[in-house]
Write a structure and sequence with these properties.
The strands form 3 sheets. Strands 1, 5, 6, 7, 8 and 14 form a 6-stranded mixed sheet that branches. The chain is 31% helix and 23% strand. The longest helix has 16 residues. It folds into 2 domains: 146 residues, Periplasmic binding protein-like II (D-Maltodextrin-Binding Protein, domain 2, 3-Layer(aba) Sandwich), CATH 3.40.190; 90 residues, Periplasmic binding protein-like II (D-Maltodextrin-Binding Protein, domain 2, 3-Layer(aba) Sandwich). The protein is of the alpha/beta class and 269 residues long.
């Protein structure tokens, strides 16, 4: 999935974004005056955000976003982007908020404000059942690990594993990571456990693979949960989202959607 970062989800374009957005954007935002809220998302991360055969968007984050718009009495508009282009798109005002299983890392907080966490992160390593690999540098030295470009998983492996000989391969689409894993062009991928378990691992192409080792812990990078992000200083949009989210948590909508998409397993970024 894009999907908690979390597509738990880095710094590739964010570093440039930090340079061009040193000053916070104005808080006033015409979105609610127009009764429309534009969400940016990357629909390549099931079960959080993905496309149905007819081209319509679906997934946990999509349903949560639509429910938040209904609670705020505004129309939802979804704008598609690669994950590593979302922050730049937000700053360019292509949309008003990012809803894409994103984690609130310290670097992102420098240019964005966030809602409270919606669901927790569960970052795991996926590898072949007979690989004997584990999520540590001793096991993965010399191995090719695919990660989503701009994600917290990418930041984690480049910060903690790459210098120890792990061969990091970044992709713009998680589906391409899985394809290269199946075709032995990768040895493993780091991803939200729920995204793998309910997506790739539930399909015939994922039959030879599994979640290996324990959940990966790193409070400095693999943040506490998935959030929705707005431009720094856009208090109007943030307050509306916070209010809608609180209502959906109180009436059980968030719990119901988590169970619908994630079952009884741990929710994710």
């Amino acid at each position: 999935m894009k999907h908690p970062e979390m597509r738990a989800r880095g710094l590739s374009r964010l570093a440039r974004t930090l340079l061009v957005t040193a000053a916070a954007m104005p808080a006033m935002n015409g979105v609610f005056a127009a009764d429309t809220l534009r969400f940016g998302t990357d629909p390549s991360y099931p079960p959080y955000e993905y496309k149905l055969p007819d081209g319509h968007l679906a997934g946990l984050d999509i349903d949560i976003g639509n429910a938040m718009c209904a609670a705020a009495n505004v129309k939802c508009v979804w704008v598609e982007s690669s994950f590593d282009g979302l922050i730049a798109g937000l700053q360019a005002r292509k949309f008003d908020a990012i809803n894409a299983a994103m984690a609130p890392t310290a670097a992102r907080r420098a240019v964005m404000d966030f809602t409270p966490p919606i669901y927790p992160a569960d970052v795991r390593l996926v590898a072949a059942r007979d690989s004997c690999l584990m999520p540590d540098t001793a096991s993965l030295a010399g191995k090719r690990v695919g990660v989503l470009q701009g994600s917290i998983e990418a930041t984690f492996v480049k910060t903690n594993w790459e210098a120890h000989g792990v061969l990091v391969r970044e992709y713009q689409d998680q589906d391409n990571i899985y394809a290269d894993l199946v075709n032995s062009r990768l040895d493993a991928t780091l991803v939200l456990g729920s995204a793998a378990r309910l997506g790739f691992l539930a399909k015939p192409q994922g039959a030879r693979f599994e979640l290996v080792g324990p959940r990966i812990e790193d409070p400095s990078i693999l943040a506490a949960g998935s959030v929705i992000g707005v431009r720094k200083g856009d208090t109007r949009t943030l307050q509306a989202l916070d209010s809608a989210l609180a209502r959906l948590k109180q009436d059980g909508t968030i719990s119901r959607l988590e169970k619908q998409y994630l079952g009884d397993g741990q929710a994710p970024k």
